[in-house]
């Protein structure tokens, strides 16, 4: 894929890779919920599937915006990645909230 960017530092590629890395890290962190899989299998496996789906959605959204970001940077104007930040915020809030809920139920 050829992108029209004059950035020798490849800013769009670094940004796309960092979002992908963050989404994959979130998938790994969601597996920590397996700790509670014995007493609450429905909640835990539903949460893991939901967080994995959101991670995949985040990867796909950022793959799609990669070219757009490169074009915008070559024009020296880039719009913020609101959808990516929103998805990541939702994922972190869900992971933290479900983990807290499971801790409170267990106690």
UniProtKB/TrEMBL annotation:
Pfam families: DUF202. Keywords: Membrane, Transmembrane, Transmembrane helix. Coiled coil: none annotated. It is a multi-pass membrane protein. It comes from the Bacteria. Residues 8-69 form the DUF202 domain. It is found in: Endomembrane system. The chain crosses the membrane at residues 43-61, 82-105. GO terms for cellular component: endomembrane system. This is DUF202 domain-containing protein. It comes from Corynebacterium qintianiae. The lineage of its organism: Bacteria, Bacillati, Actinomycetota, Actinomycetes, Mycobacteriales.
């Amino acid at each position: 894929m050829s992108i029209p960017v004059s950035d020798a530092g490849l800013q769009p590629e670094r940004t796309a890779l960092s979002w992908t890395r963050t989404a994959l890290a979130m998938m790994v962190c969601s597996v920590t919920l397996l700790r509670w899989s014995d007493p609450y299998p429905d909640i835990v496996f539903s949460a893991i599937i939901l967080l994995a789906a959101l991670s995949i959605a985040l990867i796909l959204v950022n793959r799609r915006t990669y070219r757009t970001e490169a074009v915008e940077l070559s024009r020296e104007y880039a719009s913020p990645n609101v959808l990516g930040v929103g998805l990541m915020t939702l994922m972190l809030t869900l992971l933290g909230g479900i983990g807290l809920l499971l801790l409170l139920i267990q106690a």
